Model the fold of this input.
Amino acid sequence: MAARLMNAQAQVCKLGKHVVDPMARQFHASCYTASKVALSKFDSDVYLPYDKLNKRLEVVRSRLNRPLTLSEKVLYSHLDDPANQDIVRGTSYLRLRPDRVAMQDATAQMALLQFISSGLKKVAVPSTVHCDHLIEAQVGGPKDLARAKDLNREVYDFLASTCAKYGLGFWKPGSGIIHQIILENYAFPGLLMIGTDSHTPNGGGLGGLCIGVGGADAVDVMADIPWELKCPKVIGVNLSGKISGWTSPKDVILKVADILTVKGGTGAIIEYHGKGVDSISCTGMATICNMGAEIGATTSLFPFNQRMADYLKSTGRGGIAAEAQKFQSKILSADKNCEYDELIEINLDTLEPHVNGPFTPDLAHPISKLGENSKKNGYPLDIKVGLIGSCTNSSYEDMGRCASIAKDAMSHGIKSKIPFNVTPGSEQIRATIERDGISEVFDKFGGTVLANACGPCIGQWDRQDVKKGDKNTIVTSYNRNFTGRNDANPATHCFVTSPEMVTALSIAGRLDFNPLTDELTGADGKKFKLKAPFGDELPAKGFDPGQDTYTAPPPSGENVKVVVDPKSQRLQLLEPFDKWSGQDLTDMTVLIKVKGKCTTDHISAAGPWLKYRGHLDNISNNMFIGATNSENNEMNKIKNQRTGKWGNVPEVARDYKANNIKWVAVGDENYGEGSSREHAALEPRHLGGRAIIVKSFARIHETNLKKQGLLPLTFANAADYDKIQPTSKISLLNLNSLAPGKPVDCEIKNGDKVERIKLNHTLNELQIGWFKAGSALNRMKELAN
Done:
């Protein structure tokens, strides 16, 4: 099977416009021998690919004959066939060779189940799994971790054994959040990495193009199939001035979110440049890139500089820093006079601290306006909980700056007025802040240090201080604040800001406090203002690695057994989806017409549902339960068009499937924004969906739908959304002539009235093959036979 799949991969390359030169594939393999600086301490036999990247880039330079942005240099130097690849920003589909794959435990389950189905014996590129999503915050780090290990033992054992069998590195629960682990160990300037988490772009803080994808994309790369990406546009952000005082790197991306909104970066890479870059630490740059996911960007990155070199040296990778410096001008910085598709100017000297929210990360409030805006909009002014950390803001510098604020307050006899939760990004950060006394400061301040995991940021929070439905406010240094995301309470008003601002607001306990101008009252009754935060960028004593939480794969996994119990409620082997029949999809029922924002959280909720991420049938019971039904403005209540009875969405979908009724879902703008979770595509496919028709898609989700054999279609005229009613019958016609760039004919029946509209799509020839085969994985197997 594996040998046939390798032949299939060669055929896959021929599905595009050009046939790949066999020498190009040999060239790809040479990346592992061109340099003698190891990719990481865990990949001692895999070397930095700078020589190969530079040679490929020269081929592209000679063809394009123009100055290149940094994004283009890194991306195009990873082309599978640089001599023949069509390269047009916003149009071409690039076939790429990423350097590595990273997966978190919630998405890795489905990705590895798909890889097992492929029949291959070993991953083709360095790949890792990180256990960070399944640990629920309850009382504190050690107890929460012990509880998670017990509750999730079956899943952890599956992931560990699958990693050992197929050659992946395994980071145990408690090791930390995937993106912090990547930054500390694997990211390097010029890297192209894909990760099964939407905040994978965090690695852009070390000058890498790190892109969030669904599990099926990860399977392609692990199977040595070129990875496909629509050639991104490039949005430049020129930073002038210097970060100082209460302004932090987080405020840069909060401002960019204000400018671009949650969909303004879709289909583009955000490239930061300018003199202001050098005033931002490496981990600060990672913060900015991390939250670029909230504006829909493909990824974000910064040019290689001394701050990155310092971080590499501090984390034991001085050899990588030295090698990167050799290629700084050739690969790791933009050419002079390069052109951006859009240019944003931000002056760091005048940038005010921001607090964004609630319910969306692009609703920006400068701190000077937060109180006024909160009162005007009726936001609860009293803050119930402050939370710092997460993959976005849990660096040593972040923790040190927050500790300086806490110590300042305690020197006046006061501390946090509200519960204050701290999430270290990794075991290394936890051990280092404990050694350096920062954890002790937080403890005296009234804080609780949680496990090295995602925790409340993704809804893994057993919150007890408010009842569901109670209107309340929390402030976090997280990246995402959709309705109900953190605590499953739709009435919680979550505001995202810098960890420094969270700390200050936690001392005051109110949204209408501005630490730049307002005074607090000390225990002695005297008024005082908080001093501007300060903290070391890197620990003076170096990082303390803490406990060893990494397991390397054995030289051979041949004798390792991976067992999935057929009775398991957590794991389920996958059955292939059915092929397209070759007939038009006619008289399909509308399962749900979604009103307003519909993120992947609305389509496939996280929180308590994370435990079922490896069991497709069980997790499908959360499909669309958070989406608002346009018919009644309610969540998880739709009318069964077969029976006339009202029911929850998964229940009605299962009834349709059992009665062979094909269905479509209809949505609004930026459908599927947020997480990279492919379950939001797998579940509709599993329960009988055939097409998703919306005004516009978020990038990752659209690709995930294609991978699972669903048709992602957009209204050619957005106003046609109003023509579809819950009782409508939808037909997609002339599918035998489905072709790239050719709209799909759609017939809408409302009683005796029949209307025809056009639906657009972005499917290319390869992706149309996925639809016809039933899924990308089915197509891979077809080519293998």
In short: The two ends are 8 Å apart (CA to CA). The first helix runs from residue 2 to 13.
